[in-house]
Amino acid sequence: MATYQHVQQRSLTSFVLNVTQLIMVCGPTLLLLSAAVASARASGAKRLPRSYADPNIPFEPPSSPAFSPSSDIDTASISRPARRFDYCAMAAEESNVNSGIVSYKAAKGCYEMFDFDPKIRDQIVRSVRANLESFYVFYDIAKSPPHMENSDLQPVDLTASLISLGNSTFRDDYSFHAALAAQISQLQDPHTTYKSMCYQQFLFIQPLSTYGVYEDGRNQVKVATVLNKLDPRLTTSLVDCEVTHIDGQPAFEVVTKFAATKSYSKDRGVRLNKAFSYLAHDRTGSAYDRYALGTFAQRTKVPFNVTIEYRIDCSAKRSKSTFPITTSNQKPIQTTMVLAWSALDATMLPYDDASSYHRQFCSQNSIQTVKKFVLDSANADDFGSSKTELHNGRKKSRELYRGSYASFHMLSDGITAVFRLGTESPNKQENYKAGFYKNIDNGFAAMGAAGAKKLIIDLQNNSGGIICWGRYVLQTLFPSTVDSPYIYSLRASPLAQALANATFLYNQDVTSPYEGLVDPETGEEVSDDSWINPGEKLQGREGTFSKKITDRFCGAVDEIKGTADEALFEPEDILILTNGYCGSTCAVLALQLHERYGVRTVAVGGHHGQSMAFTSFPGGAVQANNTLWVQRVQKVFKSMPVLARASQLESLVPQSLPANGQLTFTFRQVMSASDEEQVSEYMRIPSEFRMDYTSARFRMPSVLWEDVREKVWGVPSPSESTVDETGDEESSVPEEMVEEGEEPPGEDQGEGEVEEEDDELERAAEEADREDLEYLGWFDAQSK
């Protein structure tokens, strides 16, 4: 039986060797692009002299710190550092030689090579303002947000801040784009972001990631994973040791301060969870999961310092070990390590120097996607055997069914099932909609066949996806749910009202962003603009908004409509488990379950003793300022007679971004299911139950699920349990499961990211039993 350390070392090495595996965003077209990369970088491709990668070449950092949300820089007084040579050429050569790994010096230097252009600044600021001022549905509330517990949300006057930015100068182009991105991030609305794809081409990573626990009466930071390929000093003996200090400061305080600058939730505890490493549901349908590095150890923005210093203490781990320390495995109990940042080359096209880099990734018509990397690290709890003991005599969960989007498990009591939903965003495969529906249908059939009576829905680290997929899950749980349970409203700005009017008056319903909306009272698509003209007031809000609307019909959802008595579980027998990072479609789904049906909620992690929201950014539908969006808006506007195009309105029409930038914004706001005058985004609903992460709960989902069950429902009596006393459980596979490739009825809406995995990783994972008895023995000792 392989030990956890051996497996982790093998899987981490596999990750680095396969670092170029990626998530494709645009399907077959980008597969051709990846082939072009391989061709362009073949042996006959242009190579740069090794001198570009000479580690002895000194690197001169800029004279002032980079822009960050917490820093206030007089950019007008910043002078550019002298350029010694082409850092993009250096990055290209390092990437070729080191299998996609680039030094911090080369990646940072490449980003800083391009001159600041005030004309580019002016055009981008005008376009961003045009979109946000007319279409961002939270534009008014951002100026005066409500008080939200355990939040540090600050007022943001978008117009004033963008005007100020438009009057500022910057030392280089990267600094301008970073400043704009940081300004938008102050909204703490992950649906509303700005990024320049020119400066998304490198992913900065640390060779060590951390996770947070509350143990021994205090918050602690521990080592989650190590990448010894990036730094051979790192060994798996450091895993689960405590990181006491980072750069000389208490580690937990450092990560907390870092998380406060991030925008992915309005809740402090959720931001902290996201900063740490976490175990992500595998999206290939394999029987193991993957550790994500967390945002502290993995960043798209250039880290301010070249290195991070960690003080690591293994004494607590060593003292609780049930296994003897030998000369061969003995390591220092305390150590201090200075670890450098590395950059992973995420480019999708070849480049040789700054000129080709800029042409491929920075110009207006350049490529809009990057490679995405997955840390291949096996989970100790692979659900492969029902007989392996956890600590305190409990058995680990038995897996009932697993697909690419969700997995289903049975706890040791034999009556409590777990439905683990990792995403509502597509995987890369043909008929991905059918794959999602099959995954859900087969999982529920397996739970029914296994005799499940209670259900934990694990939505940790689910960032959402297609809204109709969330509806499918909701209606599978509660078949009597109406077809359109998610109610929205839109901003009724003057430009929005004019576009909505033109949509129907000049037959622009195919092109318009206001096509396909449905009146929730009648279930019929709207046929005129009376739903937005003249507009309505919302309680406590400035400006006017549309009447309540919803999306058009979701075909697959309608096919599973049924009655209340067809539900597999009663609301009181269901729990929602999150770490707060359940966003977008996931958040809307969880809120519907809680507000409409009274399903109880459990949140894990965050700050000990502080309440935490169980969802983040339910916001609503998202729009992107891409070429298609601009073309649609301009086409509808130009359909109006010339005399009807008031110059004041024409000045508000958004234009294409002049550089390779991406702006997304919340276009429609989800209204609360319990209070139709409130928007879900600014309603903080804390979880009813709170739990802390421990090492065991972080490493093995079975431990967390067992603890959640006992906290809410208590330990089941022997009469409730259906587990055979011998522990020999038979797998429940119902005959009515959907066959591979069978198409479900109906169609769904939306597109999303797709993912491609390496089959070699799958084969390597299957060779090892990832349930490590030594590891479990250590947790057993901890619990006593």
From TrEMBL:
Q: Which SUPFAM superfamilies match?
A: ClpP/crotonase
Q: Does the keyword Cell membrane apply?
A: no
Asked if the record carries the keyword rRNA-binding, the reply is: no
Listed InterPro entries? ClpP/crotonase-like_dom_sf, S41A_metabolite_peptidase
Q: Which UniProt keywords apply?
A: Membrane, Transmembrane, Transmembrane helix
In what ranges is there compositional bias, type Acidic residues? 722-761
Q: Where is this region: Disordered?
A: 53-72, 714-784
Mark the transmembrane ranges.
Answer: 12-38
The family database entries (PANTHER family) matched by this protein are listed as: PEPTIDASE S41 FAMILY PROTEIN, RHODANESE DOMAIN-CONTAINING PROTEIN
The name of this protein is Tail specific protease domain-containing protein
Taxonomy, top ranks, is: Eukaryota, Fungi, Fungi incertae sedis, Mucoromycota, Mortierellomycotina
